[in-house]
């Protein structure tokens, strides 16, 4: 089959930064991969300008930075106050930061509206924000101008599983009962109606799209792997002692405390060691638990580490123990697989859609916190009893990343979806 031709793209990536992680890194990586495949111009927020310049992009030619700091600063201060410091309430932060996005798009239209109306672009693709709560006013304007509009990847909306009320309280997620209220925002349905293609990063998000627009949705994980950041790791060689790791922010929903409780008998008897990379409000509580249980020789805390150190930790581990119960994307799971490290994840939300029996293990969440800990303990025991299987899973996971999850592969997938949604352009 002939590959679709190149088209002219205006890529809206309000959050896009090669020097950061999470959503900004997704925005940067996807925009750059698409720009390498097509004739593209990236629009981002002013806070990312210096990082774009350091990466060698030419301002005005390859990207434009939009200044919305006057509005953003006030809203971020309000969001920080509602979060009560740095201890949770991510939904409150997302809800408030979504308010600034309308202003950002208004500035984008002032700058690029005349070019869009003149047909300078074939497709306007809003990559970030990833949250479906941020309404795009560009979509109906593009539809009126006869220019294709692509939304996404959108992600979010995964419910808290039952039986984890303690973690939810510690995260201060007090807006959960109002989660669906974002659909009542002015312009929400107009955005969906005017979109030609809606990329959804998870089944939860896809299922949240109203039925009238389901035909426009396509499922595509938003995360990918940059092979420059993750060069080929050495082949997996089973060790006598099971080497496990946890990589992520030390916050309640990511479940590092559950890893420690589940692994306690194996850590205490020397059958397993655990590396913990990350920092956060739970760190001292976790350190106290390790000290109280006398696990200092088996558990090592690394604190915050950069990507190079993360690669080393994954490459030195047999198992990535990550029972996060509210993970939308799960890019860290792909990073583990890219390092031939076998993931163990909760069978809920984003990570569960990246893992199957060929590459790792999924743990049921139906039994609540106690059930998940028991399932993880049993899975570690099963791995210890059959170490040879890890080698095959590690290799299969690595090959899958190369075939499906590099940013180049994802740019080709998105291009095919462009062609399906907008055949007149191809």
UniProtKB/TrEMBL annotation:
InterPro entries for this protein: Glyco_trans_1
Alphabetic keyword roster: Glycosyltransferase, Transferase
Domain Glycosyl transferase family span(s) in chain numbering: 244-387
GO molecular function: glycosyltransferase activity
Domain of life: Bacteria
Protein name per UniProt: Glycosyltransferase involved in cell wall bisynthesis
Organism: Gemmobacter aquatilis
């Amino acid at each position: 089959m002939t590959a679709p031709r190149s088209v002219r793209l205006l890529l809206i990536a309000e959050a896009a930064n090669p020097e950061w992680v999470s959503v900004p890194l997704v925005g940067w990586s996807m925009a750059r991969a698409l720009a390498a495949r097509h004739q593209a111009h990236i629009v981002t927020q002013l806070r990312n300008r210096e990082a774009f310049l350091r990466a060698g992009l030419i301002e005005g030619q390859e990207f434009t930075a939009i200044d919305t700091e006057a509005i953003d600063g006030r809203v971020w201060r309000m969001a920080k106050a509602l979060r009560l410091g740095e201890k949770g309430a991510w939904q409150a932060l997302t809800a408030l930061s979504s308010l600034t996005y309308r202003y950002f798009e208004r500035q984008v239209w002032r700058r690029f509206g005349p070019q869009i109306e003149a047909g300078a672009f074939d497709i306007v693709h809003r990559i970030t924000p990833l949250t479906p709560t941020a309404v795009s006013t560009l979509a109906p304007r593009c539809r009126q101008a006869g220019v294709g509009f692509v939304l996404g990847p959108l992600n979010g909306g995964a419910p808290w599983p039952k039986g984890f009320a303690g973690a939810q309280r510690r995260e201060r997620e007090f807006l959960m009962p109002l989660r669906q209220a974002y659909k009542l925002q002015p312009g929400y349905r107009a955005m969906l109606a005017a979109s030609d293609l809606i990329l959804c990063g998870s089944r939860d998000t896809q299922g949240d799209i109203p039925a009238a627009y389901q035909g426009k949705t396509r499922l595509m994980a938003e995360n990918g792997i940059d092979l420059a950041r993750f060069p080929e790791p050495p082949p997996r060689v089973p060790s006598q002692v099971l080497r496990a790791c946890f990589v992520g922010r030390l916050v309640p929903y990511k479940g590092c405390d559950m890893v420690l409780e589940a692994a306690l008998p194996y850590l205490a008897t020397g059958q397993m060691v655990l590396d913990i990379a990350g920092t956060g409000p739970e760190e001292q509580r976790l350190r106290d638990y390790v000290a109280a249980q006398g696990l200092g020789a088996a558990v090592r805390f690394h604190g915050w580490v950069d990507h190079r150190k993360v690669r080393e930790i994954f490459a030195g581990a047999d198992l990535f123990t990550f029972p996060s119960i509210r993970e939308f994307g799960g890019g860290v799971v792909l990073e583990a697989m890219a390092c031939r490290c076998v993931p163990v994840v909760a069978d809920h939300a984003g990570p569960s859609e990246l893992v199957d029996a060929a590459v790792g293990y999924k743990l049921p969440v139906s039994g609540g916190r106690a059930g998940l800990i028991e399932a993880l303990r049993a899975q570690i025991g099963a791995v210890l009893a059959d170490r040879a299987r890890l080698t095959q899973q590690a290799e299969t996971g690595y090959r899958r990343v190369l075939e499906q999850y590099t940013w180049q592969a994802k740019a080709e997938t998105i291009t095919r979806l462009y062609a399906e949604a907008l055949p007149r352009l191809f």
